[in-house]
Amino acid sequence: MGRKFLVALGGAALALSLAACSGGGAGSGEKSGDEKPSDLTIGVSMPTQTSERWIADGNAVKSKLEAKGYKVDLQYAGDDIPTQSQQVDQMITQGADVLILAAIDGTALSSQLQAAAAAKIPVISYDRLIRGSKDVDFYVSFDNYKVGVAQGTALLVGLGLLNKDGSKGTAKGPLNVELFAGSLDDNNTQFFFGGAMDTLKPFIDDGTLVVKSKQTTPEQVATLRWQQETAQKRMENLLTSAYNDGSKVDGVLSPYDGISRGIITALQNAGYGKGAKKLPVVTGQDAEIASIKLINDGVQSSTVFKDTRLLAEQAVNAAEAFLQKKQPQANDTKTYNNGVKVVPAYLLPIATVYKDDIKATLIDSGYWTADEVAAGQAKK
Ligand code: GAL
Fold first, then answer.
1. Residues whose CB falls within 8 Å of the CB of residue 289, separated by 6 or more in sequence, listed in order
2. CB-ligand 1 contact for 228 (6 Å cutoff)
């Protein structure tokens, strides 16, 4: 299932990217590799500030580059594709020496990348792979298929069908679950949903898990731009259409904490979490502080932690290697085919966080403080 989906989506994304065309700018041209950091500018384009993870990513990349003396042009695109294209065009015309790009739509930046290549500006794809272009030079991310497996597994553990050590749990089906995926224009979505479905499918096939809405295809369960409100609306619709017979939702697969919070709001508005009507098990991703509080309070079940500090560090290492005329160190040269070429990647490990893991994984590592977890808000 996962593989079939990957192939289908890859084809669609490539077709889309081939259809895209518009002009770019001219950059500052190739550098010798001997410049002082203060003579070099790194353009950093992030998708949105509505999600705190991208703010953390942007800040981490900027401060790490500045600490090494580089100039940084950090821009957020408000989840608007033309804005991001324009911002990247501008970085190129203003003479950026390296670009670090987290794309809103993985196929929409091809012409910018062409312009960057013409100006010999290396391009690093940040967490979301840019598709349909040969001009992506490096990719820094996590093992995104494993993120999906971790989310599917966390749903099974939360439901009691599996124990944390992978052994069989004591719960018995049938249990009602609903599925959510991310934005289809984000290359990661296919990996997250593919990994989760490969994990859940045997339980769906033998009737242990029942998707009452029958919505199981990526197109049916996707959430455009990963938006919380869109997820809330879809959960509300699912509750009124598939659960108006007195039946209950036991679990919801969610690929990202913002989506999880939308799902939880819809459930709470429908009376879940009060009295005997327990909230379903809801998964997540990104360890966003609002969701960590919910996990700590027993409202959300789990999240997948991806340390953005380490991701930023890898992006900075890759940028520096390019500026010194070296190839960045990759640890994966097989997985991330963007439809035109396999992009060399550095992939970081992930960790599932349940309530019991908050202290060791997030507080002791300094990612969030105990006060932030209690407040559900970042201090800085
Ligand atoms: C994905 C990313 C996830 C999550 C999501 C929504 O590309 O890998 O960690 O942040 O976007 O922002």
1. 52, 368, 372, 373, 376, 377, 378
2. no
Mean pLDDT of the chain: 92
pLDDT band at 29 (very low <50, low <70, confident <90, very high): low
Please give the model's pTM, rounded to 2 decimal places: 0.91
Q: Determine whether the shortest distance from the Cβ of 226 to ligand 1 is under 6 A.
A: yes
How far apart are the C-alpha atoms of 191 and 107, rounded to whole Å?
16
The answer, yes or no, to whether residue 101 has pLDDT greater than 80, is yes
Give the position of tokens 């289809």. Answer: 184
Q: Is the pLDDT of residue 17 over 50?
A: no
Q: Is the CB of 127 under 6 A from ligand 1?
A: yes
Distance 206 CA to ligand 1 centre (A): 31
Contact 10, 43 (CB under 8 A): no
For residues 23 and 30, the answer to whether their CB atoms sit within 8 Å is: no
Asked whether the predicted pLDDT for residue 3 surpasses 80, the reply is no
Residue with CA closest to ligand 1 atom 7: 128
The percentage of the chain sitting over the pLDDT mark of 90, rounded to a whole number, equals 89
In the reported structure, the alpha carbon of residue 46 is separated from the centroid of ligand 1 by a whole-number distance in angstroms of: 11
Determine the distance separating the centroid of ligand 1 and the alpha carbon of 187, expressed in angstroms.
Answer: 10
User: In the predicted model, what is the mean pLDDT of residues 102-125?
Assistant: 96
Residue with tokens 């939880």: 264
Chain centroid, CA 366 distance in Å: 21
CA of residue 353 to ligand 1 center, whole Å: 16
Q: From residue 263, give the alpha-carbon distance in Å to each of 59, 176, 229.
A: 28, 15, 9
